[in-house]
Amino acid sequence: MKFRATYIIAFSLFAIFAKAQTYHFGGGFTYMNHFMFNKHVKFEGNDSTYVFSSSWGGGIMAAAYFDPGAYYFRKLYGVKAELQFSQSVQSYKVYPGNGLADAGTFYKFRTQANYLDVPVMFNFCNSHHQGFTVDVGPQISFLQNVRVKAEESTIGDRQIPELTKEDFKPVIFSGVIGAGCFYNFSESFAMIGTFRVGCSFSDIRIRREGVENYLPTRRFWAGACVMGIYKFSKYYSKRNRGYQYYKRQLSKR
Known about the structure:
- This protein is mainly beta.
- It has helices at 2-19, 243-251, and strands at 22-37, 48-51, 54-65, 76-94, 107-125, 130-153, 171-184, 189-200, 218-233.
- A hairpin with a 4-residue loop joins strand 5 and strand 6.
């Protein structure tokens, strides 16, 4: 069922891109703060706390816009698809003694799950030239690998969980929303910077038989995405007084 949904998304994107008027292609980097939320992790008692965790990622994008005539001060509406490599990294600090009352007795470990993320988002820009941009849509993620690594410790006995790729779902679905700025450097090149937030719709872990008091884990992330863009359109820019025309007009003010 999940792979059937992937085929439907791919076919829909092909149909959308075939009918579009303006296209953007590019690539860039992301810097995200990640959390793997689970109700077993608490900020009190003989338990553990979340530790701020961040990581880098990167990928490529393609966007298709429906703007007949493609005048530069016309608002842009379209669909953007990306292929992003991301590291979902979450560190935990565990207090095996008297909890936070004994803050000096702890050990820390990090769980890292690498994904190939494919967000498919509705995209809005308030003009071809520059301004505000919004992204919102679903995301499908394909698990690549999982690692658990011991970090800082003030004690000798550490019960680090033994998690592998087989303990996580191979495909998960999430929602993504972002907002930022779009700016043209020339007729063909631009840059987009957005702040994004995403969250998985369901558990990213697999519940094994015989495990008691199991609680689901959710993937959450927030951070910056910066991309360089190459763009082209089916329209004739000189006829429509494109980027260079408006650049000269603005310089006269």
